[in-house]
């Protein structure tokens, strides 16, 4: 595996109007625009993942679908993983360790704080 792109979901609505669970929060209009912009940047640099893994949270799935559509990645190939929702740093690290090493580039779309923690750990930097 040569590259892993850790992608935090785009901006979501602050809360569900109907009191639904956190996992069902959708992207805000600004979040949808931001996801399209970032996807177009990835396309500009010819980034094409071999796999996209997304948290099962609605906002992550929406972010993944926007990116997939822009990159012309098969939307049906997005792997929705329940374990990526509310995942700890340690479990995210285990998830990464267990990925198929033959995949060239991978997108993992999930949440903070674990996404920031793993990026800091793997890059030995502070974000």
Account of the 3D structure:
Helix content is 39%, strand content 16%. By secondary structure, the chain is of the alpha/beta class. A four-stranded parallel beta sheet has the order 1-4-2-3, with helices on both faces. Strand 2 (51-55), helix 2 and strand 3 form a beta-alpha-beta unit. The longest helix has 16 residues, at 29-44.
Structure, briefly:
This protein is an alpha/beta fold.
Describe the protein's topology:
Elements: E1 3-8, H1 29-44, E2 51-55, H2 58-71, E3 79-81, H3 89-97, E4 105-110, H4 114-123
Parallel strand pairs: 1-4, 2-3, 2-4
Helix pairs in contact: 1-2, 3-4
Unreliable stretches (pLDDT < 50, length at least 5) are none
Q: How do the strands line up in the largest sheet? A: 1-4-2-3
The level of helicity is: 25-40%
N/C terminus separation: 23 Å
The SSE string, one letter per element, is EHEHEHEH
SSE class: alpha/beta
The biggest sheet amounts to: 4 strands, parallel
β-sheet strand percentage: 15-25%
**How many DSSP helices?**
4
Overall strand count: 4
